[in-house]
Design a protein that fits this description.
The protein is an alpha+beta fold. Helix content is 40%, strand content 29%. It has 3 helices and 5 strands; from the N terminus they run ααβββββα. Strands 1-2-5 form a 3-stranded antiparallel β-sheet. α1 crosses α2. The longest helix has 20 residues. The model has no long low-confidence stretch (mean pLDDT 94).
Length: 94
């Protein structure tokens, strides 16, 4: 599902809201999550899941083209762990 599909579906379920307002709210929501993760804060959405910032340590890797060793710098990443309700809904026939 694309973000535009999500906006359309939200607009269908909330006909009292304008699509541009839904888009603004969704952008704001995602921005808050992104900014929180950038600040190394954990974001928990009950029954959906948890976004946790993580740090990948520097390491030696291989250039797939040449096979030579290269240094891969430290990187920030994000982990997602689905909540119980989401996880259970994926594994049932409902």
């Amino acid at each position: 599902m694309l973000k535009s599909d999500l906006i359309k579906e939200l607009a269908e379920k909330n006909p009292h809201l304008k699509e541009k307002d839904i888009k603004y709210l969704l952008e704001s929501f995602l921005s808050i999550i992104k900014d929180s993760i950038k600040e190394d804060k954990r974001v928990e959405l009950r029954s959906f899941g948890v976004f946790t910032p993580s740090l990948k340590k520097a390491r030696e890797g291989l250039n797939p083209k040449t096979g030579k060793k290269i240094r891969v710098e430290t990187k920030k990443s994000v982990r997602f762990k689905p909540g119980k309700v989401l996880f259970d809904s994926l594994n049932t026939d409902n």
